Amino acid sequence: MTAPQPSPDDIDPALARTLQRFARLDADTATPGLSYAQRRRRLSELQARLIRSPLPSIARQDHFLAAEGREICVRSYQKKGQPARLTLVWLHGGGWMVGDLNTHDDLCEHLAHFTGHCVLSVHYRRTPENPFPAPLDDVMAVLQWLHREQGSARVLLGGDSAGGHLALAAVVRQLQEEGSGPMAGACIAALLLLYPPLLPDARTSSMQAFAEGYGLTPQAMQRYWQDLGQPRGIAAQWLTPGRCDAEMARLPPTVVMTASHDILRDEGEAFALRAQQLGAPVQLLRAQGMVHGFARMLAASAAARQQVEQACAALTQLQVAHPCTQGK
Q1: Most Cβ neighbours (<10 Å): which of 42, 80, 285, 294?
Q2: pLDDT of residue 154
Q3: Cα(259)–Cα(303) distance, integer angstroms
Q4: Are 58 and 113 contacting, i.e. CB atoms less than 8 angstroms apart?
């Protein structure tokens, strides 16, 4: 029997309306003289403003930490009047090229609200100006700062889309450098990955089924991978962290959430199943009726908020069931 063909009617109506608003915004926004990256960044900011709905219960503050030859801006989110449980370092999506602290305000506020953690959003260097592993180097610098300067021995790490890729790459790198690097003794206590891109050469069924009409396209994803660069040496392993089986078997408690109507769905789910086969404590969730990027549309979709809340609850439960043993 032939499987039914996916339809835009199957996705959450609120997300469908948001995609239509984004498409009109794209068509109506003139950006003469801007490069491809500059145009995408501008549109990403405008999209975020279109559906922004701040949570008054969350306190936000910008911080600047010094790294070698650069300064990294991070933004903290914490429930007002309540001590944070742990720190959740969050890496924003956007194809490693688009997205910033402002575009992910809603998501990070909700993550702080749902988890009770202090969420630390990282503005890492973006491509094409800063090819890989520059973004990953910034992530490691923030983790090292938390471990050495702030005394945080246990942190949580997560990201949406390209940020999920960077979060997994950071865990792989930390495991490879365990015992000898600047993060010796540190513990990444858990990992939350929302619809991460993991295969530069993906030829999956979902890549074909959701190629048009669902937001992210194969052509855009190909461009993002291309501009990410082709590093050599050990960094080449970090570019495709889902293929590092030795480190996959040693992952901390990890929640992977994919979107049902997303070109990246199959590669994310294949990674999660492979990690489970290798013995890692990984839980896979598929967000039904969701498209790529739904976690950035929480102000527009109650269903999207419920999915993110479910992912946060699963992360807490999995972390309790599998305490962190890294760095011990």
Answers
A1: 294
A2: 86
A3: 12
A4: yes
